[in-house]
Write a structure and sequence with these properties.
The chain is of the alpha/beta class. About 40% of the residues lie in helices and about 15% in strands. Strand 2, helix 3 and strand 3 form a beta-alpha-beta unit. The protein starts with 8 loop residues before the first helix and ends in a 13-residue tail after the last helix.
Length: about 140
């Protein structure tokens, strides 16, 4: 018996994009350059992607697989940064996972949230600043 997917990724992305704020790359770069202290840029990419490609300077890394656990203050894995009164701007490699992540975060009650259209690839292509990955000191 084959599976029947009743709600596919296109529908999920359309729903997410209809209910969250999407920042253009230019707007995201300008926001980053402003140094706004009330904004947290959240990198939800896999650590291998960050190691390979670098990251947006100052961004907070939270893999997509841990997002819900790090946001929920009742979770044993909760991260204090997600309890701060800030705007959370998510990004991934191409803007798909970050749209779903922002929608999930918003559905959990985190607000305000947004994501960067086109993700890290669009950021890089637009000349946004990039920080090379540096291994943690042992």
């Amino acid at each position: 018996m084959s599976q029947t997917i009743t709600r596919g990724i296109k529908t999920m992305l359309d729903e997410a994009n209809a209910s969250i704020e999407t920042l253009t790359t230019a707007d995201a770069i300008a926001l980053h350059k402003s140094g706004a202290s009330d904004v947290v840029i959240v990198d939800i990419r896999d650590p291998r992607e960050i190691e390979r490609d670098g990251k947006i300077p100052g961004s907070f890394s939270c893999t997509r697989g841990m997002l819900e656990f790090w946001i929920d203050p009742q979770s044993p894995y909760a991260k204090p940064i997600f309890q701060e009164d800030k705007k959370f701007v998510f990004y991934c490699a191409g803007g798909l996972r970050s749209a779903l992540a922002a929608k999930t975060a918003q559905d959990m009650g985190l607000k305000p949230v947004a994501h960067i259209e086109g993700g890290f690839g669009a950021w890089r292509d637009a000349g946004g600043p990039i920080e090379a990955w540096v291994p943690k000191k042992k």
